[in-house]
Amino acid sequence: MSNSSPLPNESISTSSPERDADTYRRLLRTIKQPAQFLSFWIAIALPFVHVPLLAQGLNDPTVTMTFLTLLAINVLALYFGHGYNESS
Questions:
Q1: Where are the domains of the chain?
Q2: Do residues 40 and 86 lie in contact, with contact meaning Cβ atoms separated by under 8 Å?
Q3: Where are the annotated segments for Disordered (predicted)?
């Protein structure tokens, strides 16, 4: 009796942990450069948004929370973007 599947059995296999790890590493390498680029430039641009908030004053709780949120985003962007464009 012949196999009715159009694909040979060798092509249908379960994924191995090594293949999954290679796929994961390849995905990380693909995402790393654009993520560092974006984080780097966000870290550069956000302080220009802080200045008007500070000039306005932090008396209003909404302005204070906005400033603190932007400050936290800036710290994260500095962390993730710090290695952008370094020669390897």
A1: 32-88
A2: no
A3: 1-20
Residue with tokens 């400033």, as numbered in its chain: 67
At 5, is the secondary structure helix, strand, or coil?
coil
CA dist., res. 39 & res. 82, Å (int): 8
- Please write the tens of the pLDDT for every residue from 11-42: 555 567 788 888 888 888 888 889 999 999 99
User: Looking at this protein, which amino acid is placed at residue 8?
Assistant: P
For residue range 39-73, what is the model confidence (pLDDT) as tens digits?
Answer: 999 999 999 999 999 999 999 999 999 999 999 99
Residue closest to 81 by CA, chosen among 21, 38, 20 = 38
Give me 64's structure tokens. 């204070």
